[in-house]
What we know:
Layout: E1 7-12, E2 15-21, E3 31-35, E4 38-41, E5 43-49, E6 53-59, E7 71-74, E8 79-84, H1 91-96, E9 105-109, E10 112-118, E11 124-130, E12 136-140, E13 142-143, E14 148-154, E15 161-168, E16 171-175, E17 190-191, E18 216-219, H2 221-224, H3 256-262, E19 266-269, E20 273-275, E21 293-299, H4 310-326, E22 330-333, H5 347-351
Parallel strand pairs: 1-8, 18-19, 19-22
Antiparallel strand pairs: 1-2, 2-6, 3-4, 3-7, 5-6, 7-8, 9-10, 10-14, 11-12, 11-15, 13-14, 15-16, 15-17, 20-21
Amino acid sequence: xxxxxxxxxxxxxxxxxxIIPIKNYQDNxxxxxxxxxxxxxxxxxxxxxxxxxxxxxxxFDAYIDLGKxxxxxxxxxxxxxxxxxxxxxxxxxxxxxxxxxxxxxFTYAKEGTKFKIWSPVAKYVKLELVDKENRKEFYNLxxxxxxxxxxxxxxxxxxxxxxxxVYVNGKEQVVQDPYGKASNANGEYNYVVDFSKTYNxxxxxxxxxxxxxxxxxxxxxxxxxxxxTINFSNKKRYLGLTEENIKTKNGLSAGLDxxxxxxxxxxxxxxxxxxxxxxxxxxxxxxxxGYNPSQYFVPEGSYSTNANDPYAxxxxxxxxxxxxxxxxxSVVMDVVYNHVYDSFNFSMEKLVPGYxxxxxxxxxxxxxxxxxxxxxxxxxxLR
Length: 383
């Protein structure tokens, strides 16, 4: 239970809000910003009675380091940690902390692996690294620039599991890598993988490039090979779409052969990135088309033969794409960039609370998607 005497949020680089329960409010108290070896008196610019709470708007004249812990204290010595507020939705924040390079996530080499994650408002970030014998070690990441935290771990980490511990807004949370490329079942950990060892796609379809020439067929990886009367070896899996010489009980072409007979140029696949609503260890116990985004750069594990093998889901997806290309069928991904499944546990929300979603004038998530959140894809680091 939160027992803080009041709540305070950083709304801009020189503005903050203090919310005080009526029972704790007293007039004529001074408030101070305390942190980074400074004590700065706050200038209260507005007082708003919300009925059960008093809202104070305050300005301060000082530089604030978002990577440091600050408190707001009053003359009674009541104190509360300053949390991230509306500042993350300001244009200045987006401009200052926009990271231009494309190396977030992990960068693997046999000699060592570099880990980078973005959170301008984190007070510390730790890497939890688990080796192939399931032994854990923890490493502190160093803050660099533009909101990026970095660690370089020596040694060959191929096949090691990892995730992060991040302190933001008064608590430490476990965070999966929003830039991760591989995962175990149900997104418990991300994996370091050596992409030079993954399946190599060698075929490219021959298409004119003219949209008027496209003939597009849409399907679900799971549904396309799920008919119990048809003898697919890899039902409901990526590899099911690679199987040839499959017939229906009436002797008609099924699977890949059926697609070829249709004469399509493109196969549009319903979401194949990692989504929630399915237990990847027991996928037949639930049903979902995949519009519950979780890890945008990790292939869905329920479509692989082994959801706990990070290479299986990558290789089998690539094998499926290559087989379709071999048969002159291009692949289109159905993507879901307007919302996520779990707005509270989405990695970017844990890393930078309030940054990832559109909100109304009261700071409440909008719901145009019908999923209780709308991704703010105009923001530079979400885009």
